[in-house]
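Predict fold of Methylenetetrahydrofolate reductase; 287 aa.
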Amino acid sequence: MRTDTLFKDKTVFSYEIFPPRRTAPIDTIYHTLDRLKGQQPDFISVTLGAGGTGANLSTADIAQKIQDEQFLPSVAHLPAVNFSKGEIIAILEELKQKKVENILALRGDILPDKEPKKDFSYANDLVAFIQEQGDFNIIGACYPETHSDAASSVEDIRNLKRKVDSGTNQLISQLFFDNHYFYTFKEKCDIAAIEVPIQAGIMPVVNKKQIERMVKMSNVTLPTKFLKMMERYEHNPEAIRDAGIAYAINQIVDLVTQGADGIHLYTMNNPYVAQKIREATRSLFEA
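Predicted 3D structure, encoded as tokens:
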């Protein structure tokens, strides 16, 4: 099932998970998926792995497992800088065989110790190429606080418009902790006539190390109330977990109330946290 059709009838709620690293047991992802059963998000997306690295179980395999065992649409992440055209064609063929119709087309992280492939410099290049290869639903990423490589928010919106015009049918935002950034970003998209559904990306922070890593990678702003929460509970693992869940729930309630097209929850493969948030907000998506 194409995930872009979901937005016609409802506010969409979805999850992101990631494959195990090569050094981790394959059973870890099976355990995560088993514990997510019954939570019934509208779809689940599967990353290529941390920093765009491979795993010992392919993204396509996990995406197929989600569809076959949980009867949910799945989305396979595909970073442009990691693959040549020939490799992309092979991956697309595998996705077709496994009946995975949805692709999140990304530029991907430029890693200092890994030479990027040269065939696709930007996500919109990959989007246009996928469009030529088959009937996939293509999803793109967007950045409420502006992409770190963009010279300005104006340039970032222009690039996003180009990506949508290339064939992107829906968007998922980078994480943010102040909803004001998302609302301002949405206004800019409206002005630029970017008319595809945009899901707000929400990451529940459950420990201090996690947020330090995310800020370094994503360049997001931390509101004062968030920093005070982290400072107060950083030495109490249970308290900081519960406070992080509550903070994410408050963000979601506000976003849905204000008419967001959907929420994409970065689960960090933590079924407990996903379940608590799902239970607290489920009725919002059924109203």
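The radius of gyration is 18 Å.
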